[in-house]
Amino acid sequence: MKVKFNPIAILYILLVYLELATDRQQLFLVTYMTKYYIGILIVFLFMFLLVVRGKVISVNKKIVYLAKIIAMPTVAVFLYSVFLNAINPVPFNGYFSRLSSTTIFDLLAIFQALIVFQYFGQKAVDYTFISVTFSYLTSIIVAFKEGGFSQFIQMITDSGFNGSVLEMHELAPIAALFILYYLYRYFFKEVSFLFVFYRILIGIIIIFLSMKRIVLLSILMMIPIFLLIYWYYQRKRRVGNERKILSLLNIISITFILGILFYVYIIKSSMIYTFIQKNNINSMARTDLWKGIEGTYEFGIAFVGRGIGFVSKWMDNYWMTLNINGLTGSMGIHNDILKYYIELGFLGLCAYFYTLLYWNAKRIFLRIGHKETFIYFVLTLFQMLIWFTDNISIYHNFLWIMYLLFFSLIGSKKKLNNTDL
Fold first, then answer.
1. 123: number of Cβ within 10 Å
2. Is 12 exposed, middle or buried (0-12, 13-18, 19+ CB in 10 A)?
3. What SS3 string covers 288-334?
4. Dihedral, CA atoms, 413, 129, 118, 173, nearest 10 degrees?
5. pLDDT of residue 152
6. What is the dihedral of CA 128, 134, 139, 140, to 10 degrees?
């Protein structure tokens, strides 16, 4: 990766490197809020630099439009949650504060990605990837200093081993995002094979050493879906009928949402616990969390949800009653699919997921560009696959880097297409 000496770029790489840091790396005192503080610092710093360069007034209209459609679902579920709390108040102190902070942090991720891309353009992606690479290299160095190759061997051979500095909860899915992104750029002939080979290899190493099973499984599932969508898109493009790709994306979206509802059903009905026990699957206490919260929701179209932030507030108040060995504080339920069902309800979940997958993809296809909708859909679907057993919907670094990849798809043409929705 050739990078010319650029003090601002170096400062950015350092700030992102610090933003990605974890307490296990022992670089400095890292708290839950550290990444948000650094994210806010990045926003204000590069807003100031944009003002100095006079670029604030020349924002690409496509970037603004993309930011708007990404942010609208967040604002919509916030308003829906306010409505739900008005008709059925959440019985926990500080709920509205949690709802507001969750919404603000999601919008911060969008704004951080927008500001960074507005300043650096396409180079922002490569600079960010350098930060990711150095962050995981730090973990490798720390792990080796702590015990030689022992942690590496345990991470690969012992499925129950945790607590290693190699297990980077955010970097593994971020590395997978970059793999899909660079595959996209290669398949659409934007970069050479060698350009993507080394970057994809680094991403594979991060995922492999992190041993995040859901990330590995999700990326393996996404590659054939990626190739299917690419094949169908190219086939329709050759005959001048690219709009047909929307039909395929619609089918995938509806099928996926039906699969999600079935998934919630087998959790609520306890069928999944029988399957896990019968096949001797190590759920790492996730099923205990799901069982603990099952009294807060019902499966059915009449269930309207409890509002964004409800699940985390429930955990704050009841984690100590779950009697999970090793659980010493409030945490997520490691299942964003179930979390969104509890918080948004049956129809709310369907509307939210359909908007994120198909409706936004259609808007991008018609107003921004055809190729751009391809990778937006792939990255969004990949994120949702990880939601099945993880908490990445609140991972700030994952979110803003994913949004940055969305923004990087914007071409030099600033005007929006005028195709009707």
1. 16
2. buried
3. HHHHHCHHHCCCCCCCCCCCCCHHHHHHHHHHHHCCCCCCCCCCCCC
4. 90
5. 65
6. 130
CA triplet 355, 359, 360: central angle to 5 degrees?
85
Instruction: Output the CA angle 169-172-362, nearest 5 degrees.
Output: 110
- Both tokens of residue 344? 């948004």
Counting beta carbons within 10 angstroms of the beta carbon of residue 318, is it exposed (0 to 12), middle (13 to 18) or buried (19 or more)?
A: middle
Report pLDDT for 52: 86
**Residue 368, C-beta contacts closer than 8 angstroms, at least 6 positions apart:** 62, 65, 66, 409, 410, 416, 417
Read off the amino acid at residue 288. D
Token pair of 7, please? 């003090």
- Give the C-alpha separation, 365 to 242, whole Å: 10
**Angstrom distances, CA of residue 332 to CA of 38, 80, 161, 271, 406:** 23, 22, 20, 22, 27
From residue 195, how far is each of 182, 202, 204, 382, 404 by CA, in Å? 9, 12, 15, 23, 19
Taking 70 as the pLDDT cut, the residues of the chain under it are 1-4, 55-59, 148-152, 154-163, 323-331, 411-421
Q: Which pLDDT belongs to residue 146? A: 77
pTM: 0.92
Q: Where are the beta strands (DSSP E) in 140-214?
A: none
Measuring CA to CA, which residue among 70, 71, 77, 104 is closest to residue 345?
Answer: 77
Alpha carbon separation from 155 to 34, 71, 386 (Å, rounded):
27, 37, 20
Contact at 8 Å (CB) between 396 and 43?
Answer: no
Q: What is the mean pLDDT of the chain?
A: 88
| pLDDT score for 340 | 97
What is the pLDDT at residue 409?
Answer: 80
The Cα–Cα gap between 176 and 207 comes to 7
